[in-house]
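Private note to self, pasted from the team thread so I don't lose it. C-alpha cells:
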C-alpha cells in the first residue's frame, strides 16, 4: 500500500474509481472529474485548488494504491479550517472504492493521512462523517477520534465531528 498524488499516470484508475462510484456526490469532491475537457484540465484545476486559489484553502490530495496498482481509496487533506470545514468537512475527507469497502482500506488511508497531517504540523485534526455513516465513525474512532458536538446542516443532515490528537 502506498499513497500517490493524482497524475496522468493514474488517469485510468481514477476514471475507473469515479465510474464505480456512480452518480452519487463524489467524496472527496476534489476527485470529481465532471465538467473537465480532459484529465490534464482536471489536474490543472486540482493544483489551483490545492494552492488555495479562489474560494479554496490549501490542501493535498492522495490516492491509496494497492500492490496491484489499483486505487482503493482517496483522501483530501485540508491544511487549515474555515467555518464550513470546522462544521462539516474537517481537515480530512476520504472515501473507499465501493468494491473495496469492508477490507480495512478506510482505516489505512485515514492513518496515512494523519501522518501527512503530522508532517504539516496539524496536531489537532478534525474528521467528520454523516450520522448515518456508522462505518466511517468506527474508522475515525479506530484512529483515535473523540466525538465532539454534532453539527446540523440547513437541510437537516446531522454531521458527526471527531477530533484526533495528532501531537507527540
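Design output:
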Amino acid at each position: 500500500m502506498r499513497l500517490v498524488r493524482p497524475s496522468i499516470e493514474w488517469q485510468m484508475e481514477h476514471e475507473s474509481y469515479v465510474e464505480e462510484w456512480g452518480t452519487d456526490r463524489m467524496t472527496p469532491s476534489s476527485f470529481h472529474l465532471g465538467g473537465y475537457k480532459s484529465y490534464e484540465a482536471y489536474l490543472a484545476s486540482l493544483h489551483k485548488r490545492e494552492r488555495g486559489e479562489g474560494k479554496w484553502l490549501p490542501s493535498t490530495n492522495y490516492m491509496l494504491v494497492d500492490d496491484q496498482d489499483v486505487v482503493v481509496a482517496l483522501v483530501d487533506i485540508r491544511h487549515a479550517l474555515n467555518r464550513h470545514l470546522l462544521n462539516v468537512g474537517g481537515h480530512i475527507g476520504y472515501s473507499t472504492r465501493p468494491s473495496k469497502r469492508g477490507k480495512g482500506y478506510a482505516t489505512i488511508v485515514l492513518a496515512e493521512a494523519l501522518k501527512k497531517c503530522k508532517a504539516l504540523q496539524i496536531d489537532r485534526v478534525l474528521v467528520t462523517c454523516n450520522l448515518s455513516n456508522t462505518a466511517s465513525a468506527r474508522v475515525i474512532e479506530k484512529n483515535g477520534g473523540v466525538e465532539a458536538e454534532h453539527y446540523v446542516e440547513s437541510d437537516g443532515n446531522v454531521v458527526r465531528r471527531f477530533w484526533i490528537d495528532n501531537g507527540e
